[in-house]
Amino acid sequence: MSEQSLAIRKFSDLANPTRFIGLAERLLPWFSGLTALLFAVGLYLCFTTEGDYQQGETVRIMYVHVPAAWLSMMCYTVMALSALGTLVWRHPLADVSARAAAPIGACFTFLALVTGSLWGKPMWGAWWVWDARLTSVFVLFLMYLGLIALNRAMDDPGKAAKVSAILILVGFVNIPIIKFSVEWWNTLHQPASVLRLDGPAIDPEFLRPLLVMALAFTMLFLPCTSRPCATKSGAGG
Amino acid sequence: MPVKLHVEDLAARRGEDLIFHDISFVLRAGEALVVTGANGSGKSTLLRALSGLLPPETGRVRIEGAGSPNLAESSHYLGHRNAMKRELTVGENLVFWQDFMGDSPDGNGLPVDVAIEALGLSGIGHLPFGYLSAGQQRRMAMARLLVAYRPVWLLDEPTAALDASADRMFAGLVRIHLEKGGIVVAATHQPLGIDGVRELRMTGFAGVGDVI
Amino acid sequence: MPVKLHVEDLAARRGEDLIFHDISFVLRAGEALVVTGANGSGKSTLLRALSGLLPPETGRVRIEGAGSPNLAESSHYLGHRNAMKRELTVGENLVFWQDFMGDSPDGNGLPVDVAIEALGLSGIGHLPFGYLSAGQQRRMAMARLLVAYRPVWLLDEPTAALDASADRMFAGLVRIHLEKGGIVVAATHQPLGIDGVRELRMTGFAGVGDVI
Amino acid sequence: MIALFLRDLKLSVRAGGGALIGVLFFMTVVAVIPFGVGPDLNLLSRIGPAILWIGALLACLLGLDRLFQAEREDGSLDVMLMQETPLVLTVLVKCLAHWTASGLPLVIASPLLGLFMNMNEVAIGATMLTLLVGTPAITFIGAVGAAVAVALPRGGLLVSILVLPLAIPVLIFGVSAAYAAVEDPAPFLPPFLILIAITLFFAVIGPLAAAAALRSSSD
Amino acid sequence: MIALFLRDLKLSVRAGGGALIGVLFFMTVVAVIPFGVGPDLNLLSRIGPAILWIGALLACLLGLDRLFQAEREDGSLDVMLMQETPLVLTVLVKCLAHWTASGLPLVIASPLLGLFMNMNEVAIGATMLTLLVGTPAITFIGAVGAAVAVALPRGGLLVSILVLPLAIPVLIFGVSAAYAAVEDPAPFLPPFLILIAITLFFAVIGPLAAAAALRSSSD
Ligand code: HEM
Ligand SMILES: Nc1ncnc2c1ncn2[C@@H]1O[C@H](COP(=O)(O)OP(=O)(O)OP(=O)(O)O)[C@@H](O)[C@H]1O
Ligand SMILES: Nc1ncnc2c1ncn2[C@@H]1O[C@H](COP(=O)(O)OP(=O)(O)OP(=O)(O)O)[C@@H](O)[C@H]1O
Ligand SMILES: [Mg+2]
Ligand SMILES: [Mg+2]
Q: Hey, which residues 19-58 in chain A have their CB within 8 Å of chain D?
């Protein structure tokens, strides 16, 4: 018990708001530079690899679609972890990061939805079909928006944080549903070929730009969430 | 074992503002504390912090000799709102609270009709609560204190809307409760009509209360 | 032309019971009437009957010298409930009532910030009403009486939840209103702190009140 | 009166999140349907107008019961009853504010949802038009129910019996006008005109009845 | 606890036709769909279970937002929060009472509506069974939404937005179990068991999360 609380205190010491701001301020420029570089390389790779013999040029949508889809889920997972942080350790930064992550997650989800439907028109002949993968992502989008709406509707930030943390945790059931929907139900959508237990089953030709883009998106996510964290925790005390 | 209430260094916050801090006192069985102060000075906030409904900023509230050390479980809280359903009759409301709250292990609550009688409202137990006048509603809310025994009473302006005779009757109920070894903490603007009570004067934003 | 309030043979019923009957009085500009009586004796019922919210069983209420003979339109009613929205700020609530109620043709209401000032709450006009303490809420409800002028004030336990200084301040407001030629009818359990008011004692079920 | 309209709008924005919520709600309801009926796009586009109308009805019903009850509970209704302003006008303005806050966003969002349901342009346009014309009627009917509910603390039964049967004609003419626009043989105008007539009728009757109910409920 | 259950039942009966408004809304939804689909009886009977499920889901939303808000407004919630009885249990019992008053009537009314939709006996029986098993899950999920929005005076729409996405799995498995009972190749039991599992899961998670939300929003 006491050991645990000691560990928690250390953890909070490390992530205490003022130190965090200092750290964030020093690292942010580097992050931004790195992100830009990664995007440049990624985009270059995207447009230099050759098209798929089946899908032609549309395959390039994948380089945006797949990272966006991954990040939409990762963002929610980060929010769920922050929610745990709010409820269990009552860490001041946790709810700020959860709040900052929600709109970004909504953006990524939106991007995945849009690129997905752009891709779906040539591949399936319709912008939108109600299959399990697509709908569960749509539900994720709705949940992001619901959380944002809840946060805006409640005026006491402390209470809003706790209450939305609870909701985030309950809503986490959706993430495994998204991930495994392609296996549990027979859907039109592609089953996983990269994030699999038995290793990626995709041509390295496509894998390389994909991974670079994924990394670039992730780097985009970090400063996007940490900047509001820094400013808000600085202002909120 | 007689009950004893310890409050140590209590501080509470509303929104951004620290409403009070460093409030400490000890109340023994049979003692009453009256909390006074101007409007907005933090009386209700103190009572809610004591009852555990508002998580205090710092400090600790502890009760000895009442089973669990958790004050919420061995106290009655009577706030500004009466905690009664307008659609149910007075009797139904009281029977519900008696069943729901149960009784503290050693104490014994009064039967519902005796409690109604004690509050001087014998004729109207069959009326829906929403039909009563403001003062009658307040009296009924007090009957809840009698039907399920709790050693500590936390009362927020209990006598608002009461007429003079009800004031006296209420003072009598409090006196009986104190004699049985109970503890009363009450926030009021009017004197309660009981002798020998201690007083805690709240002074509002970040002021420190002092027990007289 | 100064206002004059005529009440003739008023009787009102709640459910099956006739709460009072044969209440008659005349109030001239600058006069105040205090309605007293035990809980449930019919004070609130009388005020609601005066304000036209409860259709009286028999009798008539009439006002002279205030445009229409309908008392409702030229009076303020302050009931047990504050008629303010918890989600809006104090200022927004008052601005709304000022716009909605308009002003009586000859009188003039105070600007909202002056009214807030007059109630001694200048610091908190920007807070949502739901954040205020019980006494602060009651004070704000009184500010409504000031922002739109009405010659007659019908007040139901106006000083419930007020502290001593607010009591005095309120007495001051009533005195000013009377001096301006207004009329006040107030139901209370505590003395209002104004001299020379008449008193109407309600005696409950089918009792007759007598003006002293 | 503008003050009342603005206040009610402000209240619904503050407390519930505003127009965004209405649209979100609608999207959620529409997203739920395909899970039930299955992803058959043809079927979806066929039942699309009906779904949009049901979503709108539900959105209007949610929160309608509190239209006057909230005013009564905090005492504002008493003050409103006492004013010189005719009560009918007050009720009308409250209805309009309620519709603006909860009906209008649905109307505006309906084309987007029509796309989700794979409806064609004509169907989308027709549904949006019928929603625009028809949803106010639901609010007006609902106001009567809400006013009656305020009157009788135990009369909720009456409200539902009153509101939904009256709302069904609105729904039926709305939906059939939307279909008529798509399917050739049936003419669009007759059901649409009937819908307009219903709305105008309830715009008069609704506030009048609601005001009468409110007056007789005060005590 | 039985006292709480009985009180909540009594309240919903006294205070206004909670059960009836649900059933009426349910019937309205079911009555309107045929207009969209057209009088094709085969199609109607095919999508029947789905329509019944969607109607039930939407009907459960009505009045859900007041589950804890009414308690909070009159101060009862404060007293409940202070008791020794675990709050989770209180929430559970309130959910059960709410379901008995507003979910159970829907289940009971569903065979009648099944007849309207021209469904055969097996389909009606299966739909009723899945509704019986599945609707409590909706109430439990709804309790989380209601607890989260307890401090928001007009949370009606917001509650539905928070609740519906989580309720979608219930709908999916409820409908597919009902279909499986009718269409031969698909086995009835697996989706039905999953439905039971979901309900049990939310019977635990729902009250826990709702209790946590209630605690953290008290002030
Ligand atoms: C709006 C429609 C769409 C949505 C919401 C969507 C959603 C997603 C999601 C959430 C993932 C991540 C899966 C995981 O990590 O396991 C994903 C991956 C993927 N999607 Fe989509 N998608 C859509 C349309 C499409 C279309 C039309 C195609 C092409 C036919 C497609 C091809 C892929 C591929 C190839 C992957 C990578 C799978 C992997 O390797 O793990 N998606 N999509
Ligand atoms: N809606 C109602 N239906 C039936 N009876 C009612 C209703 N409202 C009040 N009564 C009864 O009418 C009587 C008078 O009530 P009223 O509210 O006028 O009393 P009061 O003098 O204001 O009391 P208090 O000092 O408690 O405010 C009471 O006995 C009450 O039970
Ligand atoms: N929910 C809230 N959020 C923010 N501030 C609040 C909230 N509730 C109360 N306050 C503020 O806290 C202060 C103390 O309020 P409290 O209700 O404790 O006063 P009180 O002493 O009980 O006053 P009264 O005599 O008027 O009842 C007030 O200034 C009030 O504005
Ligand atoms: Mg107080
Ligand atoms: Mg009274």
A: none
- Output the DSSP codes for B146-167: HHS--SEEEEESTTTT--HHHH
> C4-211 has which fold?
Rossmann fold (3.40.50)
Pick left, alpha or beta for residue E16 (phi over 0 → left; psi -120 to 50 → alpha; otherwise beta): left
Residues contacting ligand 1 via CB (< 6 Å): A 62, 65-66, 69-70, 112-113, 116-117, 119-120, 123, 133-134, 137, 178-179, 189-190, 192-195
| Helix (H/G/I), strand (E/B), else coil: B25 | strand
CA-CA distance, D192 to B109, in Å (whole number)? 66
Domain boundaries, chain D: 2-216
Instruction: Give Cα separations from B183 to B2, B27, D115, E107 (angstroms).
Output: 10, 7, 66, 51
Residue with tokens 């889809």: A69
Establish if D28 touches chain A: CB-CB under 8 angstroms. yes
How far is residue D83's CA from residue B9's CA, in Å, rounded to a whole number?
51
**Rounded to an integer, what distance in angstroms lies between the CA atom of residue D104 and that of residue A74?**
35
C-alpha–C-alpha distance, residues E160 and D62, integer Å = 9
Q: Report pLDDT digits (tens) over A197-208.
A: 565 666 666 677
Per DSSP bridges, beta strands C198-201 and C32-36 are parallel
Q: Out of D2, D7, D78, whose CB is closest to C83?
A: D78
Q: What tokens appear for E157 in the block?
A: 């729409």
CA distance D151 to chain C (A): 13
Which structural domain, as residue segments, surrounds residue A161? 19-224
Residue A58, Cβ density class (10 Å: 0-12 exposed, 13-18 middle, ≥19 buried): middle
Show the tokens assigned to B211: 């027990």
Residue B9 parent element (H or E): strand B4-14
Ligand 3 binding pocket includes C128 (Cβ within 6 Å): no
Q: How far is B195 from chain E (nearest CA, A)?
A: 29
| Residues of chain C scoring pLDDT < 50 | 206-209
Nearest CA among C135, C142, C96 for reference residue C119:
C142
Whole-complex ipTM = 0.84
Q: How far apart are CA B60 and CA B46, in angstroms?
A: 12
Residues 6+ apart with CB under 8 A from B172: none
Closest CA to ligand 3's atom 29: B40
pLDDT tens digit sequence for E84-130: 889 999 999 999 999 998 889 889 989 988 888 888 888 899 999 99
Alpha-helix residue ranges (DSSP H) falling in chain C:
43-50, 90-101, 112-118, 134-147, 164-179
Query: How would residue B7 be classed by pLDDT, with cut points 50, 70 and 90?
Result: very high
C53/D218 Cβ within 8 A: yes
C53 touching D, CB under 8 A? yes
Using alpha carbons only, what angle is made at residue B137 by residues B133 and B139, rounded to the nearest 5 degrees? 120
The pTM is what? 0.86
Please report, as a single letter, which amino acid is at residue B62.
R
pLDDT in tens, B163-178: 888 888 899 999 999 9
Residues of D in contact with E20 (CB under 8 A): 157, 160-161
Q: Is E34 helix (H, G, I), strand (E, B) or coil?
A: helix
Indicate which CATH number applies to the domain containing A85.
Answer: 1.20.120
Which chain D residues are closer than 8 Å to C153 by Cβ?
none
Pairing of strands B198-201, B32-36: parallel
Per-chain mean pLDDT for chain A: 73
Structure tokens at B206: 């970040």
Number of domains forming the structure of chain A: 1
